[in-house]
Write a structure and sequence with these properties.
mainly beta, 126 residues, 71% strand, 7-stranded antiparallel β-sheet
Length: 126
């Protein structure tokens, strides 16, 4: 994994990003976060993307390659009471897309399935 972080002098803005490529090269992962701590309510935007490849052998002559793409976006508001305590509210959007395509046969054309989820989460950290 390769990861980098950039901060300003007062640490009001923090940007962090990273890339991970598995050793068997069957996918990739990326992430990017941006923190805005300038006002009383701190804000964070985080984006994560993952791609995986899997090959299914349907028979001795047919195989199918499946590509799974996941994209997650999180936006978080944080109201700190002190250094260790805060109230947090986060919204989440999760998109999963699965592509199926054939390797050796033209009969299997690319099919795509999409699964979308959203969420809202609140918590108080004490």
């Amino acid at each position: 994994m390769i990861k980098a972080q950039i901060k300003d002098i007062f640490e009001d803005y923090v940007m962090e990003g990273g890339v991970r490529i598995p050793t068997n090269f069957n996918g990739t992962e990326y992430f990017l976060t941006f923190d805005n701590n300038k006002q009383r309510i701190d804000k964070r935007l985080a984006i994560y993307r993952q791609t995986r490849y899997v090959t299914q052998h349907l028979s001795t002559i047919l195989s199918q390659r499946i590509r799974n793409k996941t994209m997650i976006a999180i936006y978080q508001w944080k109201y700190p009471f002190d250094t260790y305590q805060s109230a947090r509210l986060a919204t989440t959007c999760d998109l999963d897309r699965i592509y199926c395509s054939g390797h050796r046969s033209r009969q299997f054309r690319s099919n795509s399935f999409l699964n979308a989820k959203t969420g809202l989460k609140r918590r108080i950290c004490l």
